[in-house]
Amino acid sequence: MSTSADVTVPARKPAPIYKRRRRRIYGSLAIVAVLVIAVIVWAVTGRGGSSGALPGFTIAYGQGTVANSDSIIDSDATLAKTIPAQLHFVPFDAGVTAIAEMRSGSLQAISGVGNPPVVGAIGTKTAVTVVIAQSFDADALIVPASVSSAAGLAGKSVGVLVGSSEDYELRGWLALQHLTSSVKVVGFASEQAAAAAYLGGSVAAAYVQAGPEAQLVAKGGHPLIDAEQIAKLGIPGLNVVAVSQNLVRSNPALVQKYVCAEVQATRLFTGPQSARYLTQSAKVQGVPGNLIVSATKNYPFIPLSQQLHWLGSTAGDTGSPIVKAYVQTGKFLVGQGRLPSAPSASVVATHVDPTFVKKALAGDC
């Protein structure tokens, strides 16, 4: 037996060269895999490294025979992808209801909402911001052949959709014509009801749009003035895109991309290939393609070149036409008993932000 404490340990042989090369290859592949995964995450989230999912963005817009910028976005996947959000489009019929849903947080944007719902929201301190103006109302004041001027309405009655933008426009125009005290305005629950009253002889004139207007003209009536002409006289009823003010504050980059898409959609359905995009939008509008093209082309949309005229060129502009119109609408709503007090121009101006459309028009997207 050996009494020595020393034990000789054989030296470890170096790994074969092919094994060292294999380890380097595996290490390189692991690095590449990590980089690929990082790129995929960045591309999917659009946040340059953030692990959060895209935010939800629900937009309400009106359906029917007239398309709009949001129905173009809804029907065009390429354009929709320019908005970094999970888009969800829903129809709306009443602006007041849509505003209530925005207040609850279930909507982030409303497309084509008129004066009274927006001003009502401002008057009740709902966080809403107007970011782009889309159109005027398409109503006209239909009168019988015996009436050829505003003065011919004196002593007569006019039917209109009660409490609506049209109601505000009609009363404003009558005031300009000094007919407030001599013309009776009769409110109806729908424009179809106002048209029926005209045909039945219970009112002498009716302020209506589209289908009812065509019906009354076919029965011998004629338009004395329309909403676009009234707007240019200083009583504009404007259909706008209103966005949640909370979203404007928390994610202005998303709002900017959305407004950029709005501007691009407007160019598409008013440009040389408009028929293609309008026909494409017919499905989401729920109407045949042959109807939507002619109806949309005849609608009084506000040109992109006039955006900064109506909204103002800077945020907080108390002298812009839309702020003035909303102040007038506030007084109208107070008279209707729908608001306790009318918001001031300075308050209204905090709910109109033209900077998004200004950047979009300049190509800053």
Could you walk me through the main structural features you see in this protein, from its secondary elements to its overall organization?
- The structure is a single chain.
- The chain is α/β, with parallel strands linked by helices.
- Helices cover 48% and strands 16% of the residues.
Morphology: globular
CATH fold label of the largest domain: D-Maltodextrin-Binding Protein, domain 2
Estimate percent helicity.
Answer: 40-55%
What number of domains? 2
Helix/strand layout:
Elements: H1 17-45, E1 56-61, H2 69-75, H3 77-80, E2 86-91, H4 95-104, E3 109-113, H5 115-123, E4 128-136, E5 139-143, E6 157-161, H6 165-176, E7 184-188, H7 191-200, E8 205-209, H8 210-218, E9 222-226, H9 227-232, E10 238-244, H10 245-250, H11 252-270, H12 274-285, H13 289-297, H14 307-311, H15 321-335, H16 345-349, H17 355-361
Parallel strand pairs: 1-2, 1-3, 6-7, 6-8
Antiparallel strand pairs: 3-10, 4-10, 5-8, 5-9
Helix pairs in contact: 2-11, 2-12, 4-5, 5-15, 7-8, 11-12, 11-17, 12-13
What's this, in brief?
The protein is α/β, with parallel strands linked by helices.
